[in-house]
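Work Package 4 report. The design task specified in the project plan requires that, given a folded chain encoded as structure tokens, an amino acid be chosen for each position. We show below one input record used in the internal validation round.
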């Protein structure tokens, strides 16, 4: 007999389309194959003119509702969530950030709906974020399951008081049909890049965590050895102006192309020759998996789950914060022409969205069957 269908409400407060959003957008359409009917509830972000996540979700055919939220805290969002739970008392809640965790916990009250949280690798880069993440870890002590995307995220949660038995690693997965070596690339000339150039590429938010300034430091070393090398960066952020000024100061401004937000990242990866990850810290970076699925050669820092992802493959991650080591890795990767079948195969075998959906579906059923609930 088939297992009964589970109904799961994913809740996310989003500041744009970044790694966690793309994980959610990939996961929800894959869940019905595992007997899970999922809805996405998006908390409105009052600081954004456009709500990108619900718009992209609906365009992808995902069942999506928007929850009103007009400030840092808005009880109307809690009330709206309570209405959804009253309409469907069997909903399981899956939260993806500190704000959705708080609202879901308040909305549940004394109901018996299980709550699962996924920690996507949020890092406390400001005092306010540090406070919010402390609140999130406190709430996680009351949740039925806490999922992390990298094993090294488990110990800090346990130290914060989350029961280790409730912490589960669920690695990110991507759509390997969408991200593939045979996807038509973006036209290089549209960005002022010559067809014969050696293109190093990075896809990231332009923030301190992603380390774009040291990426340009490393590229300047590469550019001195490779006269046809260029660097293409897909993404935007607070460091864009500083990055442009830094590239100009190093004399490589004309060879560093800032593409901005890329609506077709699958075509970006097939446009480049080598994917570069310069991050100072990560959980499990989605861009790495996407580049691997596209068969791109890699030059990456040893952060988060990266070493485990690449274990046994012919890629050696380098220490974060070392431009010389990153430049050497970039040159070594560029020496190997053409797509890498082993990198593609690793993602197909271990990091597909199908595997991720299967793992989450099992967790949902386990949480439902055990009926565990931590009472505040």
């Amino acid at each position: 007999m088939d297992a009964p269908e589970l109904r799961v409400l994913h809740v996310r407060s989003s500041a744009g389309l970044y790694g966690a959003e793309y994980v959610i957008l990939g996961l929800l359409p894959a869940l019905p194959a595992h007997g899970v009917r999922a809805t996405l509830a998006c908390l409105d972000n009052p600081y954004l003119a456009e709500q990108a996540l619900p718009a992209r979700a609906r365009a992808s055919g995902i069942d999506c509702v928007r929850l009103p939220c007009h400030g840092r805290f808005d009880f109307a969002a809690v009330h709206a969530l309570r209405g959804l739970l009253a309409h469907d008392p069997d909903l399981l809640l899956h939260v993806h950030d500190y704000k959705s965790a708080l609202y879901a916990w308040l909305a549940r009250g004394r109901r018996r709906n299980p709550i699962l949280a996924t920690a996507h690798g949020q890092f406390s880069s400001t005092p306010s974020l540090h406070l919010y993440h402390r609140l999130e870890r406190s709430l996680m002590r009351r949740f039925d399951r806490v999922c992390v995307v990298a094993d090294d995220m488990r110990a800090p949660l346990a130290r914060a008081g989350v029961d280790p038995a409730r912490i589960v690693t669920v690695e990110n997965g991507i759509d390997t049909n969408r991200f593939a070596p045979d996807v038509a690339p973006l036209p290089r000339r549209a960005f002022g890049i010559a067809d014969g150039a050696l293109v190093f590429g990075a896809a990231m938010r332009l923030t301190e965590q992603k380390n774009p300034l040291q990426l340009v430091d490393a590229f300047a070393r590469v550019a001195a050895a490779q006269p046809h090398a260029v660097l293409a960066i897909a993404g935007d952020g607070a460091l864009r102006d500083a990055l442009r000024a830094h590239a100009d100061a190093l004399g490589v401004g004309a060879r560093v192309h800032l593409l901005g937000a890329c609506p077709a990242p699958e075509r970006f990866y097939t446009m480049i020759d080598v994917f570069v990850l310069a991050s100072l810290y990560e959980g499990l970076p989605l861009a790495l998996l996407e580049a691997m699925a596209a068969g791109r050669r890699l030059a990456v820092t040893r952060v988060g789950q990266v070493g485990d992802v690449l274990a046994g493959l012919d890629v050696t991650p380098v220490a974060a914060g070392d431009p010389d080591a990153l430049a050497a890795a970039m040159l070594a990767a560029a020496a190997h022409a053409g797509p890498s079948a082993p990198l593609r195969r690793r993602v197909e075998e271990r990091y597909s969205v199908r595997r991720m959906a299967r793992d989450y579906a099992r967790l949902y059923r386990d949480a439902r069957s055990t009926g565990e609930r931590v009472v505040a």
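The longest helix spans residues 353-370. Validation will be extended to a larger panel in the next phase.
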